[in-house]
Design a protein that fits this description.
Layout lengths: L2 H14 L4 E6 L6 H12 L6 E6 L16 E4 L9 H13 L3 E5 H5 L2 H6 L4 E6 L12 H10 L5 E4 L2 H11 L6 E3 L30 E6 L8 H14 L7 E6 L5 H11 L5 E5 L4 H5 L4 E4 L8 H8 L4 E4 L4 H4 L6 E4 L4 H13 L1 H18 L2 H16 L3 H4 L1
Parallel strand pairs: 1-2, 1-4, 2-3, 4-5, 5-6, 6-7, 8-9, 8-11, 9-10, 11-12, 12-13
Helix pairs in contact: 8-9, 8-13, 11-14
Length: 400
């Protein structure tokens, strides 16, 4: 689409549509939990209520094909490495063209986009905190705390995905309670569901027979997700109990800068043949139905979409006790929580499920039941709509 035709389309949509436009600002639209949550929100929000645009500071990938609404445009601002001051001008120009009623930024990389949004006279601005990165693992960085406090007046609402993040925004950043909303992620329980009649086969020949136990994880292979912790735990588990080599399998789904390091460690330990490393996949819902247990070894988390998806798929979850993970995983009921960066503790938790498949199945059923009660996608969408409606003063009849 040419720039002229795109501009015509933007102006036509803005002038002729009664639905307000929300510009969602993120760093990059690619495979990831936060990005998946954004796609879910847009796909399930009634189209007559709000229109949407996704503004990427860097770029977008084929992940955008998960959008089911043809009216949603994605824009790439191609941020240069380091401090790209021209980015703010490009952002300002785009927002002046789009004329959204709301700009919704997400996470630290998009936080300072509140500045061009304010200068572009966007009426309302929302910032969401979905989790932390390895550059500020516990939110204690003085540099980023000062930045957040300096930009605090520019956002009309803050959204925290976990109670952990909510408390941090109140206590350390100084966000007043009336400007702060807690909205937990939701999961599509029709798409993510247990396998009928038992575990499905994985799409790799000869990897996991009927007598094996598949430990699965879906994550970006980057430092904050700490995949090496899971690799070391798997190696320790097999070294501690060699007979489990006949049954234990690990499926580590995802791509990222640590892929080669992960593979090298597995080869050094002599267990590469017991691990499936398919890279990034677009059939995650199907793959989850091929696991017996799910693991998330992160150093930090907000509210993990992949944990919710695994629970909805009827899997017990072993996760590090960081961020919002304890708000999802009920210790001894739906899974287990272990300290971060502790492969011995992680190996022990995984070994318990390998040795007791009945408990693993029982915890998996309880996980599905908990998601059905507390983490529906419909409830999540309604809460976001309520925030947007409240800002715009939407009439009560439009909210029902």
């Amino acid at each position: 689409m040419s720039n002229a035709s795109r501009a015509t389309r933007i102006n036509s949509q803005t002038e002729n549509s009664a639905a307000p436009l929300i510009a969602h600002v993120i760093y990059r639209l690619d495979i990831g939990g936060m990005e998946n949550g954004l796609i879910n929100l847009i796909n399930h929000m009634p189209p007559e209520r709000y229109r949407h645009a996704i503004v990427c500071l860097d770029d977008y990938t084929d992940f955008r094909r998960r959008l089911r609404r043809p009216d949603v445009e994605c824009y790439a601002l191609h941020k240069r490495p380091g401090k790209d001051f021209g980015l703010y001008l490009r952002m300002w120009r785009l927002l002046r063209r789009l004329r959204p009623q709301i700009v919704h930024t997400r996470n630290l990389p998009a936080l300072d986009s509140l500045v061009p949004a304010t200068l572009a006279r966007v009426p309302y601005r929302v910032h969401g905190e979905h989790g932390r990165d390895v550059i500020d693992i516990d939110g204690s960085s003085a540099k980023y705390t000062l930045l957040r406090r300096a930009l605090r007046p520019l956002a009309h609402r803050y959204i925290a995905l976990s109670h952990d993040l909510e408390g941090w925004l109140r206590g350390r950043i100084g966000i007043r309670p009336e400007r702060l909303v807690h909205i937990c992620n939701g999961v599509d329980m029709d798409w993510f569901h247990p396998a009928p009649g038992g575990r499905l086969p994985l799409p790799v020949a000869g990897f996991a027979g009927g007598d094996t136990f598949v430990i699965g994880s879906v994550l970006r292979l980057q430092p904050v997700k700490d995949p090496m912790n899971l690799v070391r735990a798997f190696v320790k588990l097999l070294a501690r109990t060699p007979r489990l080599r006949a049954r234990a399998r690990l499926a580590l789904v995802g791509d990222g800068p640590l892929y080669i390091e992960v593979e090298r460690e597995l080869m050094r330990a002599g267990v590469r043949d017991l691990v499936w490393l398919p890279g990034a996949r677009n059939d995650v819902a199907q793959l989850l139905r091929g696991f017996d247990a799910f693991v998330l070894p992160s150093l930090a988390e907000g509210i993990s979409n992949t944990i919710l998806e695994a629970m909805a798929s009827g899997l017990p979850v072993v996760a590090t006790n960081v961020g919002g993970n304890s708000e999802l995983v009920a210790e001894g009921e739906t899974g287990a929580l272990v300290p971060r960066s502790d492969p011995d503790a992680l190996a022990q938790a995984l070994g318990l499920y390998l040795e007791d498949a009945a408990t693993a199945a029982r915890h998996g059923r309880a996980a599905r039941e908990r998601v059905e009660r507390e983490f529906s996608l419909e409830a999540m969408v309604q809460r976001y709509v309520a925030v947007y409606d409240d800002l715009l003063g939407a009439p009560a009849r439009a909210r029902g």
